[in-house]
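Changelog note: in this version the structure field was regenerated for every chain. One regenerated record is shown below for reference.
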Amino acid sequence: MKHGLIFDLDGTLVDSLQGIAASLNHALEQFDCPKHALETVRRFVGNGSRVLIQRAAPADSNNELIDAIEQSFKEHYEKTWPQGTFAYAGLINLLEKLQQQDYPLAVLSNKPHSFTAAMVAQIFPEIHFVQVLGQRCGIPHKPDPAGALEISRTLGLIPADCVIIGDSTIDIETAKRAGMKVIAVTWGFHDREDLLAAGASTVADDAEGLLQVVSES
């Protein structure tokens, strides 16, 4: 039986850092807040748009300002994300091979659901993902296991027969809480050392390496 493969999106399937940073700095500038360099934004990403804004805004920002910056970010990002979001090298080919081998595929992201669904549909139009889930109102996001467990039920698999594939310590923690296996990838937003320290026992450095460890899992 093939394992169900649950992919993270940002930093795993797609390099979205340029698009996120551009929209974040646009929103910050609208409210006279300091902007951030690309590598600084890299450290802010992974916990959803609300946490992104909280990390990027000045430390003394109140909830009203956070709300306004987040809304501005989302409005700008909705229009501009295609110009700053790209599939990582080899990932489309990897997904095609996994699909041909009948692996059930899914996506679980902390990005707002509307962006997640649009991004997957546009960048991976030939790939059939059984379920694509982003951050939804009322549903706790990763590392809470709710989304991962929902996907396992949709796939008709027990959690132990699912693998979460992601670039962050959040994905590792999600897998632990869900009772799933995990494969960490090193080309995304978190460094290899952080992934190993968080308990990643299986690590892939490129698409070819990921295909190999999936085949061995």
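Spot check on this record: Residues 14 and 87 are 4 Å apart (CA to CA). The beta strands are 4-7, 14-15, 86-87, 105-112, 131-135, 162-166, 181-185, 203-204.
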